[in-house]
# Entry
Amino acid sequence: MSTNTNLTRRAVLGMVSLVLGCLAAVVDFVFAWVCTPAHVIPAARPGIEALGRHIVAFHRWRLVRFLSYDDHLYAVPGWRRMRMYVLYRALVGVLGLLILTIIALGATSAGIMAWQVVRGEPLGGSAGDVSPTGNPWYEVLVAVGLGAILLFVAVWGLIGVAVLERFYADRFLVPSEAELLLRRVTELADTRAAMVEAVNDERRRIERDLHDGVQQRLVALGMLLGRALRTNEPERATTLLEQAHGESQQALNDLREVTWRVYPTALDKYGLHAALEGVADRASVPVELRYELLERPDLATETVAYFVASEAVTNALKHGGASVIAIVVTREGDGVLVTVRDDGRGGADVNGSGLSGLASRVAAADGRFRVSSPVGGPTVVMAWLPVFSESLVRV
# Structure
């Protein structure tokens, strides 16, 4: 999008926001000067506070939608901050209404004077008074200059209103330092509890894999060897030994799979790219790996990214019935984006132990986790993990 197009779009969105703000100023004034005094009545408080929350939510939507306001720290304000925000917002709305009035009057005056110039009528004269010599050039110049000044004032007035909108939103809608600290402590406590539960689930799954997989195969291996030792038929013994050899190979494969799930050694030695190549090689269906990182993230980030990809591939194979899987690792902003897409049947349970455990891992790393899995597919698992520049090592 070109610069001129972008500026035009921003100007149009700003004008829409200004008009909506002016219309809402009436409600803001009613709330500030009528509903606020009635807040002292206990029975009226719930309704008044609910109305205030709706007003604040409308202005928040307007700022985000039309003024590109970043409200990621937004918190529903208490009564005092809500009341002050609506009061100041009403004053800003009146200021915006005055600017709109100036723009409307200026546009009307400019249209009338342009028509008078075209008709040869004197500027500011009554309709029907036609000047035989037209308007002097200096009068036209003065009119154009005054119009340019009014346009300049109107444009900067719009900018000033937008600045005031953001200022009061930052002052009254953004939580205080204490609220941010409390929110962060709550998030850390929740992610810690979820992470502990995810680790416990992982331990239980490892124990189950060892018990139902490796242990059963070792038992079968022992039984086959015992039968081979007891038989007196050479051909029978050879057959049993061949079966025992197959069981031993499968037990090694199962054990290797469990160890890769616990922690792949390739991740320490060669990095995330090599570890994901191992995931692709071990899969029973084609896995397309696209790795676009030019730098190597820190080991903690690589570990979370690996487990996201590995678990997503495992779920696609076990539960999704996928025939093709794609793993994409790219840089997005100040972080790493891991995307795993499969063509399976979809309908993945985001609250299941596997995906919820991944969500807990990603949340513990201050990342974002999202799953899209409509019935019928495809299933897309995305995880964004923050990476700081000082933790990157060029590969």
